[in-house]
Structures are given as C-alpha cells and as structure tokens.
Amino acid sequence: MMRASGAGVGGESGAGEDGARPGPGRRRVVVGVSGSPGSLAALHRAAYEARRGGADLLAVLAWEPPGGTYGYRRAVCPPPLEDLRQDAGRRLLDALGSAFGPDGPEVPFQAVVVQGAAGPALVESAAGEGDLLVVGAGGRGPLRRALFPSVARYCLAHAGCPVLAVPPSPLVSDLAAVRRRIGLHLPLDARELTVGTR
Q1: CB-CB neighbours of 174 under 10 Å
Q2: Which of 16, 39, 116, 172 is least surrounded by CB atoms within 10 angstroms?
Q3: 22 and 28 in contact (C-beta within 8 Å)?
Q4: DSSP string, 46-82
Q5: Residues 6+ apart with CB under 8 A from 67
Q6: Are 134 and 166 in contact (CB under 8 A)?
Q7: pLDDT tens digits along 101-119
C-alpha cells in the first residue's frame, strides 16, 4: 500500500482543516476513487459523511497493471510496477484536487493507492469496526455491465460494513448527451445547455 498526500506521492497522509491527522481507532469513511464523475460525487458525499460523523476520510484508488497481473507477467517488455504505482498516485491526487481544490476535504484524511481489483481492495480497506464504505453507482449500459463487473455490486455483496452507493449526478447524463451530439456532428445550441438551470 502506498500513501499519497497533497504534497505528492509517497507522503504519509493528508491533514484536515484543523491540521489533525487521522487517529488510530477513529471511525473512518472509506471511499473508492477513480477520477470519474461518479467517483468524484462519491468523494464529496464521503467527505460530507465524515464531517457529519466526526470521522476520518480514507480515499482509495485501486489499480492493476495493463492486462491484469497475468497479462503483465507474460508481457515482453512491461512497464516497471513502480512507474504504474506513481501514475496511480498522481491520478488520485488529481481526483482529490478536482474534488476539493487546494484546501482539501476539510476533515482528517488519508489517500492510498492499492494494487488490485477495485472491489476487493475497497472491501479490505473498509474492514475496520464502525467503517462506512462509499462508492459511486449507476450509469452503466448493458455492454459495459457485461465486460466490467460492477464495483458497487461487489462491495454491497461482500463488505462487512455499511455501504453507501451514490448515484451519478444528473449532469453526467447531460454531458454524455452533449458528447454524443458532438461525436455525431449534430448541431449544438449552447442555449440548450442552460435550460433548466435558471
């Protein structure tokens, strides 16, 4: 397990608004982070739950080598695992920066990258007594469901603690519609984007 902080990959942990570090034996809110809009929504909800309950926040980004462990071992010239870890740490810091800006989540927090599949990594990370696991859910088409197992479903089925599945923001479907129109070279009127925001 490698720790990441706002200062860069490899630091001990991040600190909250009061400068406090996560304490041993304190209640934790564990959240899965991938950088997707759904995981950013889950990250915001997890920070809210941690503030509300006086808990620490643990942001976890799980990563696997390209092609999985078996494919990585059989590759002719695989990239070094340390480079992949560093890249995962940067993605985690970018996600935290996108979600909270330079001030951080305003609760004691820790950010870690874990090598392994997301579902098992999150379930193992949220194994403490009194933990709450927060994951993003929803917004998956039939093809994506068939090819990639749902992390949220895995966590709901295997976690030994309460799991909060956060639905995607309605803005995600609006953004997908705009991307489809652009991809199909259909005209796009900017006024359509502001309807309902007034």
Answers
A1: 14
A2: 116
A3: yes
A4: HHHHHHHHT-EEEEEEEE--TTHHHHHHH-SSPPPHH
A5: 74, 75
A6: yes
A7: 888 888 999 999 999 999 9
Q: What is the pLDDT of residues 45-101, one digit of tens each?
A: 999 999 999 999 999 999 988 766 666 666 677 778 888 899 999 999 999 999 998
Rounded Cα–Cα distance for residues 11 and 7 (Å): 7
Q: Which residue, among 51, 46, 22, has the nearest Cα to 110 in the 3D structure?
A: 22
Of 13, 3, 18, 7, the closest CA to residue 107 belongs to 18
- This prediction's pTM: 0.73
Q: Residue 81: its pLDDT value, please?
A: 82
- 3-state secondary structure (DSSP) of residue 135: strand
Type of residue at 77: C
What secondary structure letter does DSSP report for 40?
A: H
> pLDDT tens digit string along 123-144?
999 988 889 999 988 655 555 5
Quickly tell me which residue has 């990639």 as its tokens: 148
Tokens, residue 190: 């900017």
End-to-end CA distance of the chain: 46
Extract the tokens encoding 79.
Answer: 């990239």
Which H or E run contains 97?
Answer: helix 81-100
List for the chain the helix, strand, coil content (%; round to 5): 45, 20, 35
